[in-house]
Specification:
Blueprint: H1 3-12, H2 33-39, H3 47-64, E1 69-73, E2 79-84, H4 90-106, H5 111-119, H6 124-129, E3 138-141, E4 146-151, H7 162-173, H8 219-225, H9 233-249, E5 255-259, E6 265-270, H10 276-292, H11 296-305, H12 310-316, E7 325-330, E8 333-341, H13 348-360, H14 370-374
Antiparallel strand pairs: 1-2, 1-4, 2-6, 3-4, 5-6, 5-8, 7-8
Length: 376
């Protein structure tokens, strides 16, 4: 069953005011129970499914010797889960989300638009005006109208492409109901192919870092982005897992973003039951701590001490003053930033701290509070 029909059937099954909800989507794929009642939605993809899809796609990419960025959205367009493998840059990361959002708007694979543009290049302008990205790699998740976007791998059709990776992941996680891939239509002859020479730009020496290799992007990945001090995906996932487990142990949930030093996404996840405000504030906290190079709890305290500074901070500097954002500083070197929102059961900043300690131990710089400092 295709995605539109699934959404319609699931929505029609909900009876307002009744505690009983008929479920046409397999329960292991969606938010359910008390959490679903809290957000009034029994048809949104859960974190476990999104994480499985990403893991399968990343393993397939690693087997092909390529890197990918992957973004999973829910049917409302909220971020659910995101990874960028080491060595992915801005275009790889941002196009993953563009493909997913295009599939969300279309309720169809983003390749639909790519094929249309291949046959008639004049159609791309209209798609751009609509905010749609005419490239393959965005696929609807058949089970319950959730979307996946994958970007940044080197295509070797029919063996490998962004879309093939996404489709393999969906087939393994969701099952045989995943729709077959669309056929690639042949391009029309180009009347102006162009013969401009394309320069090559590569550093002779890969960048180096003084940090332990498990903490940062290294080797070919570092060479791709000319940066030896970006947080690695493995370290980011370790932070997130510890924060997630800590929040769950406190009976809470959280949303989390980890950014690299350029402000690009490295990893994102939202636990089941989190809503837009929780997700959005987590990102704003990460971005604020990256720009200020301070925990957002410092900004928060400073604004409490000087309320007149609030307009200046928010308008001129675009700071978000709630605590929960911390620069990731390891052995004195900043390698990224983390933002946590949603409460986390015991405080967003505390959750971030637990994740940082789990990943980096004594290597990481953490906030020091006045009470703790005076007790020494």
């Amino acid at each position: 069953m295709r995605i539109g029909a699934v959404l319609l059937a699931a929505s029609a099954a909900i009876t307002v005011g009744s505690p009983l909800f008929a479920q046409n989507v397999p329960g292991q794929f969606v938010v359910s129970g008390k959490v679903a009642e809290k957000i009034q939605d029994f048809t949104t993809i859960n974190l476990a499914t999104a994480e499985r899809i990403a893991d399968v796609c990343e393993r397939a990419a690693a087997a092909e010797g390529v890197q990918i960025s992957i973004m999973v959205l829910d049917k409302d367009g909220n971020h659910v889960y995101m990874d960028r493998m080491d060595g992915q840059g801005y275009l790889n990361i941002v196009t993953a989300e563009m493909k997913a959002r295009t599939a969300l708007m279309l309720r169809a694979p983003s390749k639909t638009l790519m094929n249309n543009v291949t046959q008639d290049p004049t159609r791309e302008l209209q798609y751009m005006q609509l905010g749609e990205f005419a490239n393959s790699g965005g696929l609807p998740i058949v089970a319950n109208n959730q979307l996946i976007g994958v970007g940044g791998s080197a295509p070797r059709v029919p063996v490998w492409s962004d879309e093939i990776c996404a489709h393999k992941a969906l087939t393994e996680v969701i099952g045989a109901s995943t729709a077959p891939l669309l056929e690639d239509l042949p391009a029309r002859p180009n009347s102006n192919p162009g013969n401009a020479p394309v320069p090559r730009f590569a550093a002779a020496t890969p960048p180096k870092s003084s940090l332990p290799p498990e903490f940062v992007v290294g080797g070919k990945g570092a060479a791709n982005v000319f940066d030896g001090n970006q947080i690695s995906l493995a370290a980011a996932k370790k932070i997130a897992r510890a924060c997630r487990d800590w929040a769950a142990s406190k009976g809470g949930t959280m949303s989390l973003y980890i950014l690299d030093t350029a402000g690009e996404f490295v990893h994102m996840e939202r636990m089941d039951g989190q809503i837009y405000n929780n997700i959005r504030t987590a990102l704003l906290k990460a971005q604020t701590s990256l720009r200020s190079r301070q925990p957002t709890s410092i900004v928060n305290a400073q604004l409490k001490n000087n309320p007149a500074g609030i307009p200046r901070q928010t308008v001129f500097f675009n700071y978000f003053s709630n605590s929960g954002g911390i620069p990731i500083v390891v052995d004195g070197q900043m390698i990224g930033a983390i933002g946590v929102g949603g409460g986390a059961g015991g405080g967003d900043e505390n959750c971030a701290i637990e994740g940082l300690k789990a990943a980096f131990g004594e290597h990481v710089t953490l906030p020091v509070y006045p009470a703790a400092a005076s007790a020494k």
